[in-house]
Structures are given as structure tokens and as C-alpha cells.
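Progress report, Aim 2. The chain analyzed during this reporting quarter is listed below.
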Amino acid sequence: MMKELLAATTTTLVMQTATAQVPASITLYGLMDAGMGYTRLSGAYKDPATGRTLRVSKSRLGALSGGASGPRWGLRGKEDLGDGLHAVFQLESGFDSRNGRSLQGGRLFGRQATVGLLNARWGELRLGRQYNAATRYLLDMLGPAFGGFSLLHTGYGLGMSSASFPRYDNQIFYQTPSMGGIKAAAGYAFSVNDTRNAETGYATANNTRAITAALQYARGPLSAFLGYDQLNASRLLSAAQAAATPRAYIIGASYDFTALKIAVAYNRVADGWFAGRSFRDGGRVGGLAGTPTYAFSKGLRSNSHVIALAVPTGLSGHAFASWQRTDINTSRLTGGDATGQTYSLGYSHNLSKRTDLYALVSHTRNWAFVDGVQALDAYAGLRHRF
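Predicted C-alpha cells for the chain:
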């Protein structure tokens, strides 16, 4: 009996020792962002159906979730497999801080759900629901200098890397290591949105698929990137939709002068819309609304230009300003075809390394591309990271 007990104890110790030789780490993290917001829509426009002049005057004051950054919680982990190879995973859930509801279509881990392998020499491979390539490099380019205002309230443009950030289901994604400041990334999604049940099926062509690729240069104060996305339509869509092949091209650059950081970007989208705000019939009074994730429209084209400035204010804050111009060639998808312009001012004040207060005001001319309609957004909130 004593020998059996000794043998069992020895085996347990050996297993514990072997496990200890393969270090692994798991991190729980998150972000809470809540506040108050005010939006006002006003102006007069022509009804495209009747030709009559209509007036709009709507406003809303209420609680706000994610005025600067989307609330989230998540787990990420890393295990050393030896010889420089690591297993990595990330699970990230987005939610509405006003009521605790899951976002991203009600998914449990709608922001990210990935597992992969990482090696400093050959790069990183990840599988699962994750961002497209352009979004990753746009966020890298902006960095913390803009106070975490990742949307920059850029209105309706930057269609594949702003508003509702594009995340693709069923994606395989590879990124090279940095080589003299240069990185490249590419991904393929076998079905970009599994919540569209009508598109999901055993046949590959029943699903809408995506190609994403980007090239980044980041060294010292200079950061720049190029990005490309393409959607291949499900054959289950209507004939008009299936005829479109949405493509998005984006180029951006930023330079940090220490006392001032400037960022510029240009985005062109053809044959559809990537992750734009909802338009006249779907936009909610109160700020950004994140529908649809993507849409198809043969012949639709848009061009967006963005300039943003960020200035540190002492040791505890950042102020930023941005301007965006977006023109579109047809009202077939958007409800209007007027050129939209959005002007924004924001400020974040750090109470600590993890907690800050923020405020933002944004004015849009030709809101939702409807000529004559203006929007005023004013937000203020508290953000805490853990």
C-alpha cells in the first residue's frame, strides 16, 4: 500500500514538473465605456419617391455605450511550445454597457475568437473570427495619440476599416514578422457572416467569402499602410446582388512630431459597402448605428478622404480634430447621393493609466448623403480598462 502511494505521488510530481517546463499564460482583460450623448438631425430634403420637400427635426438625449471605445471583456493566452514556437488564442466579447446585452449579432465572442501559432522568425497564423487586415493596420497607425477614439467619427467612409469594424467569421489569417519595419498580412474567410443563415450551407458557393490583404510600414515616427478587401457573393443572393463584387482599397499614413501627430487616409469602395453605418431608414438618432456589415450594389462607388490631428495636452490628456469628405455616385443603396462632410473635435483626460474622461462633438453636413440634412453629435463619458 505504501509503495503504491509513493508511486502515485512520484507520478504526480513528475507530471507537475513536466507541465511547469512548458510555461503558459492567460490574461483576463476588458474595457468599460459609458456616458451621455446628444444627437440632433435637422434640415429639409426632397423625397426621391414623390419629389416633395420634407423637413426633419429630431433630437435625442440619453445614455451612451461606447462613445469612444466599444465595451468588451476577453481572455488571451500564450503557451511556449519550444524552439520559439507559441500557441496563442484570444476570446473577446463585445457588449452594451447600458444593459449588458451582447453585441456583434448576439455572439458570445463577437469581437474576436481565434486560435493560432506564433513564431518570431516566420510570423503568426490565426484561425477564427477576427479583424480584416486594413482594420488592424489603421488602428496601429492611429495609436493612443488620438485618445482611443478609433472611429474618429469619420461619418460613412473608410468603409472597410471604420464604423462597425469588419470582422470575418471562418477566417484564416497570416501576418509576417516585422522586417525593417515592414509587415504584410493576408486572410481568407470561407463564410464572412454565419448569422446570415440563408447563405450558410455545405456548398462553398452558398456562402459569401472574403479576401483581405495589407502591407504596413512602421518605424520611428512614421507609419503607413495599404489595404485591399474583396467579397465574393453567395449564389443564394438575388441576381442583382450576386452580380456585384464589392472591393475596397485604402491607403493611410501618419507622422508623429511629438508635439503634434497628423494622420491622413483615402478609401475607395466599388460595387458595394463595407461595414458602413445604416442609412436614412435605419440610422438611430443618438449616434452611430452599425448596420449592415456589408452590402452589394453593382456600380456603386464611393471615395473618402480623412485628415486627423492629435495634440498632447500636458501629461494627462490628448485633444484631436478630424475632417472627412465622402462622395458617392448613386442613391440606390444609401438613400442619397450628396457629398457628406464630417468635422469632429475630441478630448480625453487621463485620471490614471487605466481610467480617463472624454468628450467629443461632431457635425455632419448632408447626413446619410441626404442633401440638406445636418447632424450634430455631442458625447461625454468615462472609460476604464482592466
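The helical segments are 2-20, 133-142, 239-242. The radius of gyration is 23 Å. These observations will guide the mutagenesis work planned for the next reporting period.
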